[in-house]
Amino acid sequence: MSSPTTRSGGYIPPGSFMRRVANPLVRALGGPVLIVRGRISGHPIGTPVAPFDYAGDRYLIARRGETQWVRNLRIAGRCELRLRWRHVPFHATELRGDEHQLVVGAYLKRLGRRADAFLAELPNPADHPIFRLDPIGPPIHG
Hints:
By secondary structure, the chain is α+β, with helices and mostly antiparallel strands.
């Protein structure tokens, strides 16, 4: 049973502002977009993300919990980050245990006071999947 501050399923759906304004704006301005094959459709799906660089590695942290991109990336194991005009391929490894705790701790420290909002609805850091992105080749120019 979930507590009153958490959503069932460990997922916080985006609000209408995020869906209708922020995400389209990120795409239009060439912000980082994760491209991963859909686990059901097999088609590439693009989702604006905020990569987190720490200790020389790049990570994706699922602030909203068990999102569709998390589920797709677990199955695919590979993705691309579109950064303006470049498409950079990566192998994705989901973090567990101590490594997850280390990265989430660094992320929360970097967020500072904003960490309260990050943890408000999903207070357990383990409810926020983290993937390390390891480059697998030269950028694909798209």
